[in-house]
Automatic annotation (TrEMBL):
The keyword Cell cycle belongs to this UniProt entry's keyword annotation: no
Keywords: Signal
Matches recorded under InterPro entries: Fimb_usher, FimD_plug_dom
Protein name (Swiss-Prot/TrEMBL): Fimbrial biogenesis outer membrane usher protein
Signal peptide: 1-25
Tagged with keyword Protease: no
């Protein structure tokens, strides 16, 4: 490349003056152990200063930015920079043995040059016009790279706002019933539902209770209390107290007080895809455009350099997935690769495991709360992805009266997925038994937006099979067989067929049914669905039909009419909703008539800034509507009290995690809106000065947006957007506004008494040296400007040869631009 000396000198001067947006320049010496880049034949004059100059320049792999390097230009136009830095940038790009060869060569000679790099298939050059280092890497030298398709905008490391060290909340929900007509006329005793949690040091104490005064028996019933700790590194949840057991297969979910350890990806890492994600490799000899389609849907288009690539994390749907890769190189040649993968929701990817183990004593819920017995109990299961096509599991339960154990499997094949459970049990006084179920699922893609689904099942139980907690086993059918097929016929028409047969025992008659379902989207506003079934149990036969017609009045309201031939029931209903967040509401009403009577009901919910308010009314009438037989009205409310690191607020009930938003004093009481969008918002601070975002989900990334439209002009709102990854039941204290809203202008004088011109530097806060420095640079007259500073003492360190430093003091209460005047080096 040929560059005119004047153009190169101008580019170099620009780099020296504009460090924050370009390359940073200073004088000095080259770093040890360099990689030396031989100059182009016509590169004379790119450094007109007559002495070595240091730049911070980008290193590029073709069009890909790898990172920055501190490059030294000598007066002859030769460039060099740290060889260790080059190896760090090359390590993820070329094969590991080639990196090892370069490190050996660096150790032997103390530097690397162009010949060393060409020996491993890499050429390097310095572009004096673009002020960058460019690498050309041969395709065989490149390391295999993985391309995740699940997120086309996958980012690097993300910084999240830290949660509060100590947080707590209490949800209070209440209900008041007034019976105007019926067996219990009058005003019923109000009932209050309480649930809350305290989180400190990563440990959560949570509890639930009911309170109702004025009724027979205890006023307060505690439903459960437990300690929970999540080990996020190993994705394990530990709990102690009144356990919330989950079951698999034929297990029951007994009420146990004790200890548990579990792993459920949906709870601990909901953003992880636990199903097999598929993986395919391909190699590119030339720069190419690669298009990836799954079930004829384009999911990713990438422009890739030569090399070997592994495609992972396909955005598959349940069932059969057809994958097509279309590769078009820079010469226009096209190649396609096709393959199919069958997936099922119950599968686990290879190496992943889910489990739940619960041990303690039986604790059935009594009138005051859990009743702790001396009956030991255990329940647990374990599942693991043995391969991407095979998932195996086992489960067991036991208490003082019996036990049950079983196994499960999920096998993916080219025709569909087979699943099975098999269990054996023993109940004291009743005997032993067994049970098993076999299922088959297949999804058949017919077009880009339509598919057919086939499902088969066969379940069998012995007469005396029972999970723990069963006093007397009851299994009226020896086996139950079922099959269903659903099809998307057209974009507006679908149909399904379902059949089931049960073989009775001990006098129970055989039972069977056939059901046909269908739907027709008549127009964008009108939908019709139908369900027609035939049932037979012994000598009793019945033909039943259910018909429904839905008309959408507008985007937020609809009318629906239903008819059910059983009891000759007809129903007309209306639903409407408006907005989201504060000010939103839902309304519904319906009238129903059947052979056994008639009824009218209405309900609504209003979402206020700090509470949810609801009502409902239900009335029953004679079949001909000639007289009323019952009338009941209910009023409901829900609110939450929350604390996070000393900040307090009131808001709508909290579901899991939450954030308290408050204003910095600099906003002078201006109202803050949370997640404002158009005319809607989640919450606002109002007179209380704080507000709650109540609907954060644990371990799911969330951006909380804040605005203050009435804040004084020129004030800094700080972050404005907070990126969160909430822990379980965690709380946040988020402050809108900042002390870092001061701008400073002044002039820097060098040690020689002359203005310090064309030098970059940074300002570091003395009270918070770990905070990111504020960049600044001087013009030819030594003048500088810096924004985003706060009142207090700062140190300015410049990047000249002497590393000149200055003291800067911003007075307390400063909120705008502060003139610093002439600043002289420390000690002068």
């Amino acid at each position: 490349m040929s560059v005119k000396p004047t153009a190169a000198a101008g580019a170099l001067l620009l780099a020296a003056c504009l460090m924050p947006t370009g390359a940073r320049a200073q004088t000095g010496t080259a770093l040890p152990a360099p990689v030396v880049i031989d100059p182009d034949a016509n590169a004379t004059g790119i450094n007109p200063t007559g002495k070595p100059v240091i730049l911070t320049a980008p290193v590029m792999d073709g069009q890909a930015y790898l990172g920055d390097a501190t490059v030294t230009l000598d007066p002859g136009g030769r460039a060099s920079f740290s060889a260790e830095r080059l190896l760090t940038l090359l390590e993820p790009r070329i094969a590991a043995p080639l990196v090892a060869r370069l490190r050996t060569r660096l150790g032997e000679s103390g530097q690397l040059d162009g010949a060393d790099l060409r020996g491993v298939g890499v050429s390097i050059r310095y572009d004096p016009q673009a002020l960058q280092v460019t690498l050309d890497i041969a395709a065989p030298s490149r390391a295999a790279r993985s391309l995740d398709l699940g997120d086309a905008n996958r980012r690097g490391p993300v910084t999240y706002a830290p949660p509060a060290d100590v947080s707590a909340y209490l949800n209070i929900r209440g209900s008041l019933d007034w019976v105007q007509q019926g067996s219990d006329e009058g005003l019923a005793a109000p009932i209050t539902y309480l649930d809350g949690a305290i989180r400190a040091g990563g440990v959560v104490l949570e509890s639930e209770a009911n309170w109702q005064a004025g009724v027979a028996g205890p006023d307060l019933q505690r439903r459960g209390t437990r300690l929970v700790y999540d080990d996020r590194r190993n994705l394990v949840r530990w709990a102690g107290g009144d356990l919330q057991t989950l079951a698999r297969g034929f297990q029951s979910a007994p009420e146990i007080a004790g200890l548990s350890v579990s792993r459920f990806y949906s709870l601990l890492d909901p953003q992880t895809i636990i199903r097999p994600r598929g993986s395919r490799s391909f190699q590119l000899e030339r720069r190419s455009v690669v298009e990836v389609r799954v079930n004829d849907q384009l999911v990713r288009r990438m422009e890739l350099d030569p090399g070997t690539f592994d495609l992972r994390d396909f955005p598959f749907t349940q069932g059969s997935n057809d994958v097509k890769l279309t590769i078009t190189d820079d010469a226009g040649r096209r190649e396609t690769v096709d393959f199919s993968i069958f997936l099922d929701q119950a599968q686990l990817a290879k190496g992943l495991s889910e489990f739940g183990f619960y041990a303690g004593v039986r604790s059935p819920l009594g009138r005051r709360g859990p009743v702790y017995t001396n009956d030991l109990a255990f329940s647990g299961f374990y599942r693991r992805g043995v391969s991407d096509r095979l998932t195996l599991g086992a489960n067991a339960q036991a208490d003082g009266r019996g036990w049950m154990g079983g196994v499960e499997s999920v096998v993916a094949t080219s025709i569909g997925t087979f699943g099975s459970f098999a269990s054996a049990s023993h109940v004291e006084g009743s005997g032993s038994g067994w049970a098993s179920i076999l299922t088959f699922q297949r999804t058949i893609s017919r077009s880009s937006d339509r598919a057919d689904a086939l499902s088969l099942s066969l379940e069998a139980r012995s007469r005396k099979f029972a999970p723990i907690g069963t006093i007397t086993p009851f299994n009226p059918y020896s086996y139950i067989a079922g099959a269903s097929y659903n099809s998307g016929i057209t974009e507006s028409l679908y149909a399904g067929l379902d059949a089931r047969y049960s073989r009775g025992r001990d006098g129970e008659p055989d039972a069977g049914s056939v059901r046909l379902t269908g739907g027709w989207r008549i127009s964008p506003a009108l939908n019709f669905t139908a369900d027609v079934g035939y049932e037979r149990a012994g000598r009793n036969n019945r033909l039943a039909a259910f018909l429904s017609l839905t008309y959408r009045l507008d985007r937020s309201s609809s009318l629906r009419s239903d008819y059910d031939s059983r009891n000759n029931r007809s129903r007309l209903s209306y639903q409407s909703y408006s907005g989201s967040g504060t000010g939103a509401y839902n309304l519904s009403a319906d009238v129903e008539r059947s052979d056994i009577g008639a009824g009218v009901s209405a309900s609504g919910v209003y979402y206020a800034n700090r509470a949810e308010l609801g009502f409902s009314h239900f009335g029953t009438f004679d079949r001909d509507l000639s007289g009323s037989t019952g009338q009941r009205t209910s009023l409901r409310f829900g609110t939450a009290l929350a604390l996070a690191d000393g900040a307090f607020s009131i808001g709508r009930p909290i579901q899991d995690a939450f954030a308290i938003v408050r204003a910095h004093p600099s906003l002078k009481g201006a109202d803050i809106f949370i997640d404002e969008s158009g005319d809607s918002y989640t919450a606002r601070t109002g007179r209380l000065g704080t507000a709650i975002q109540p609907s954060l989900s644990s371990y799911s990334e969330r951006n909380v947006l804040t605005t203050a439209p009435d804040a004084p002009l020129g004030l800094d709102l700080g972050e404005g957007s907070f990126r969160l990854l909430p822990p379980y039941r965690g709380g946040y204290k988020l402050t809108v506004g900042s002390d870092y809203m001061v701008s400073v202008v002044g002039r820097l004088i060098g040690t020689d008494g002359q203005p310090l011109s064309l030098v970059a530097g940074q300002a570091v806060e003395a009270a918070h040296p770990d905070r990111e420095p504020i960049p600044l640079f001087t013009n030819a007259a030594g003048r500088f400007g810096a924004t985003g500073l706060a009142p207090g003492r700062w140190t300015i360190v410049m990047a000249d040869a002497d590393k000149t430093s200055y003291d800067l003091v911003i007075p307390a209460g400063a909120t705008a631009t502060v003139p610093a005047g002439d600043l002289r080096p420390k000690g002068q």
